[in-house]
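Archive entry. Fields below.
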Amino acid sequence: MDIKPQATPELRRLAELVAAIEIAMLVTAEPDGALRSRPLRTLQIDSEGALWFMTTISSPKIGEIDEHRRVSLSYMHPASERFVWASGVTQILRDEAKARELWTPGLRPWLPDGRDDPEAVLLKVTIEEAEYWERGHGEVIPLTAAARELHNVRIKSPRAPRESH
Amino acid sequence: MDIKPQATPELRRLAELVAAIEIAMLVTAEPDGALRSRPLRTLQIDSEGALWFMTTISSPKIGEIDEHRRVSLSYMHPASERFVWASGVTQILRDEAKARELWTPGLRPWLPDGRDDPEAVLLKVTIEEAEYWERGHGEVIPLTAAARELHNVRIKSPRAPRESH
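PREDICTED_STRUCTURE:
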């Protein structure tokens, strides 16, 4: 996965964790209040910290996401006790140059005609807020240890339009 | 983690996946629409498929959850390509007998006085709907393969008060 330079050490570490775990659970709120999630491969973290995905325009999640919807992303690697949460706003785009940049053969099961598949759309999530939990480097601690012992970093994007509370 | 007998093969498999991954990302919707998540250790799946957790009454997530709130749980094991989503309704309980049953020393960092800590509360999530994705047994396929190739099972709890759509 491709990581562009990140503005702060916290965002760089967030990008590294996301790149290592790669597959997100993308969470959307449905009209009836249910919070649905499904796995989705992360393709890039750009220099502004936005996360990029590629999917098909007819997939149900696109109906659930729409444009400018608030979504969240969870990344977990239980064996190494690394957990990431990011909250952001979606954009659904068609952009040939960006699709070429992001394309990877691993996407072919969804998009048999490749990045030029008429079904292909880009999903961009601009992060508003994020948090991650991990062990200090080099420690080996069994999985039964508790999340309270994990190093916890909370990030507010400088571009976030709202205050934390 | 403790798994009680499950009513159907799908619920049994769901319970096995949850027990193997153990740590959930618990997702709640905040009043401003943000979807927040944080890691939480699963302690039991009871015979009715409800998931049990233990936490402290003063933790922020309890404020965010309240009673009877819709939450979702994501479990991921990227290395084995297993992903679980469950949506349900919360109850926050104090129950000495149940706390004794669920207690594990791994909870001590949060609850230094053990299961009788006055801060301890039980969080029960009654599943309304769930879905899981996994490889067929015995296959060894690299992580770069796509989620579309995964075996996908969707579950509606017989107790679910609403229809899928």
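CURATOR_NOTE: Chain B is about 15% helix and 40% strand.
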